[in-house]
Specification:
With 267 residues, this protein is mainly alpha-helical. The protein has 12 helices and 3 strands, in the order αααβααββααααααα. A hairpin with a 2-residue loop joins strand 2 and strand 3. The protein is flat.
Length: 267
């Protein structure tokens, strides 16, 4: 991810009237939404996240062991609550956090000024006997060398080229795991979510499936009585994708998007 951390204002979280008016569920969802904004690194814009995904990744259990709802239905729509409180804006599923840029500026002016002063004093301290200019050039060269430093080159026999897992890959993993869990309450994900994301990425990158097609197939599979008990991982979904296409086309699944046309991959 582009940003390893983000600014969290603890005093506001503990005393701001808006925060105090939220339920424990909504507070948890708000912190999770901040994490999504940090990971996306789009100036406070979050895509492909809805109430279900937000609740799932906030650790909120919507149903108990008997299948009953564990929370008031009004608490299961945190995005609508945040929008009413003018904490976010919603536009065709795109979430924008209000004042994110203002509150996430990387450096304050005072800190930048202090950093510049410290660097100047460091140069002056090391510039005795007319060596100030020489030492300044040495420091500048050290900074350039650090910025251009590269990781050691791997031997050719083990050199690999890694691909980047996207937010869409992670969204597909979240969708698949949540639907499997819904159909099989006792199911537990044994592999890491990163491994699932790699398999989803291969379906898109190598098998040339669009994310719209992958999403459609996930929903169809988990809506089918037989396949919902047999496709329990992203790896299995990739292995059976071609086999599932004619079965999917022959079904009477009414919610199939018109644009989600899937054709088998040629061997």
């Amino acid at each position: 991810m582009a940003n390893p951390w983000f600014k969290f204002y603890g005093s506001d979280y503990l005393s701001d009237p808006k925060m105090l008016s939220l339920s424990a569920t909504e507070r948890s969802c708000w912190v999770t939404l901040l994490c999504y904004a940090c990971a996306a690194n789009e100036k406070g814009v979050v895509r492909y996240v809805d109430n279900d995904i937000l609740l799932l990744n906030s650790g909120v259990k919507r149903f108990n062991e008997t299948g009953g709802v564990t929370h008031d239905e009004t608490l299961l729509k945190p995005l609508e609550t945040f929008q009413k409180m003018e904490m976010i804006t919603l536009d065709n599923g795109v979430i924008t956090l209000v004042n994110w840029q203002k509150r996430q500026s990387k450096y304050s002016k005072n800190y930048a000024r202090l950093k510049k002063w410290r660097k100047k004093k460091q140069i002056e301290t090391l510039s005795d006997n007319g060596k100030k200019r020489c030492r300044e050039e040495e420091i500048r060269k050290e900074e350039i060398d650090k910025s251009e430093a590269k990781l050691p080159t791997l031997p050719k026999a083990v050199k690999t080229k890694r691909f980047k897992i996207s937010l869409e890959d992670l969204r597909m993993v979240t969708l698949l795991s949540s639907l499997i869990k819904k159909n099989n309450p006792d199911w537990v994900m044994e592999s890491k979510s990163e491994s699932w994301a790699e398999d989803i990425n291969k379906i898109h990158r190598i098998d040339k499936r669009t994310y719209e097609q992958i999403e459609f197939m996930i929903k169809w599979v988990q809506n089918d009585t037989f396949w919902s008990q047999n496709i329990l991982s992203a790896l299995k979904l990739r292995e059976k994708f071609n086999e599932l296409i004619p079965k999917c086309k022959a079904s009477t699944y009414k919610a199939r998007p018109k644009t989600a046309v899937i054709t088998p991959v040629k061997p």
